[in-house]
Amino acid sequence: MPTxxxxxxxxxxxxxxLARRLETEYAALRLTPDEWMNPLFGAGxxxxxxxxxxxxxxxxxxxxxxxxxxxxxxxYGCWAKEERDFFRTRAxxxxxxxxxxxxxxPLDMLWRRLEARNLDLPPDTFPVTRAELEEWAGWxxxxxxxxxTATEQPSFTAKVWTWNE
Length: 165
What we know:
Blueprint: E1 3-8, H1 15-25, E2 29-31, H2 34-41, H3 47-67, E3 72-77, H4 81-94, E4 97-104, H5 107-119, H6 130-139, E5 156-162
Parallel strand pairs: 1-3, 1-4, 2-3, 4-5
Helix pairs in contact: 5-6
């Protein structure tokens, strides 16, 4: 049975690094929105365009792949519980396994990583300022314990990855 992997965390948490590892380990289709934004919409970040990309275009690809028996990794971040619930529900409707991977990294460590990344941006990566990171951290809804427990899906797993200074 295929699995939908959902990665949760702020920029700099290591989502794409983990997604690439899972992609190889599980022969999965990895969908990383940052890799699609520039080719489709040009330079610059747009929340509205990102939502269209993630919820419609990439989710359509993901759903089709899951129906064909292919594992899928959504390297989205999913800061809001509502977003996570959306994908959990879609996975249940498709009767596929569902894994949440929460990357829990302290804000100061996130900023150090982003500061280093900003100096030599990889392709399809956007620069992030300290002010943006702090703003986004305020929007981030940390998954509650009940979000990380089993559901009525065929198979549910939650993993929390933490980093200490």
